[in-house]
Amino acid sequence: MLVVAENRTRDYWYEIADRLAAKFAATAANHDRDGRFVADNYALLREAGLIGAAVPVDLGGDGMDYATLAGIVRRIGKGCGSTALAFSMHCHLVAAAAWRWQHQQAPTDALLRRVASENLVLVSSGGSDWLQGGGTATKVEGGFLINARKIFSSGCQAGDLLMTSAVYDDPEAGPSVLHFGVPFKAEGVAILDTWDTMGMRGTGSHDVELKDVFLADAAVSGRRPQGKWHPLFHIISMIAFPLIYSAYVGVAESARDAALDVARRKPASAGLIALAGEMQNAFWTAETALNAMIATAEGAAPGPETTGSVMTGRTIAGRAAIRTAELAMEVAGGGAFYRASPIERAFRDVQGARFHPLQEPAQKELGGRLALGLDIDG
Length: 378
Prior knowledge:
By secondary structure, this protein is α+β, with helices and mostly antiparallel strands. It has 3 domains: 10-120, Acyl-CoA dehydrogenase/oxidase, N-terminal domain (Butyryl-Coa Dehydrogenase, subunit A, domain 1, Orthogonal Bundle), CATH 1.10.540; 126-225, Butyryl-CoA Dehydrogenase, subunit A, domain 2; 231-372, Butyryl-CoA Dehydrogenase, subunit A, domain 3 (Up-down Bundle), CATH 1.20.140.10. The chain has 11 helices and 8 strands.
């Protein structure tokens, strides 16, 4: 049983995260080998008070600051990349809702109170939907019928609410993306066993099917034109991606540390020293880009320029994290090629950094449009 302290400082939370990471590391290889969701780790996250820690104090949470939250995700990532990545999806939904309540007086307080009081786990489908949205919303009396298949729903096997969207062909406004939350226990919601991947195998990022799920009019939390940048997505970009990439930097850090442990037991040849130095350069780049993203999320105002900055960080941090793991394989040598090596698992897990929006070609287009003063919607 984890002891909860009254004075929950950053150091306190980091100590909790490090203890959890050690526990998660002990079972990470088993989850990876079996492709099994990290359910036991979620139970420990709940027990430690981390599910609602970022909820503002006024709404029943601990009011954890953003940088501390990112640091916790990174520390967990050193122990188990799958747990960190799945948890980061819950974290960014909570952090975005808290930001909107604090800065825009948005009516997200009821959701946040439930997260804090009920230990609700939120699951995002945003990475697969993004600006286009996915699925259909058909108007019926009192609401809509939702039909959709949401891929990459990380943590869905522990989830209570799926925070998602569907497209309504509005006869007046045109194709519109409706945003809403739907309970996993709702009629018509099913988790499909589809997650069998190279890395991040314990995230349980299965497809979630919504089949004729009724959504009341009052349950629609927002709507926007399909395919266009919207103020909500500038908030999501600012808040979500530093947390998500904290998981990948944690994975890269674990690979670096493991490689250095092996290398220190070898003769210090010139080639080994140069490889270790190159690995340090790559990790410094990942860490520095991540820190810049976190600083932006803490102090900037959401908008196109902020989104451009965070997305640049996402590309640089992700690329450098992948390179760190590649170099860790070389620094450690042939032993890192065995499945028993934590470096081998980190190498596979970190590849997931390639696939979150905005993927590098789209990120470069956004950056180029901003630099040239062009419309970001094309």
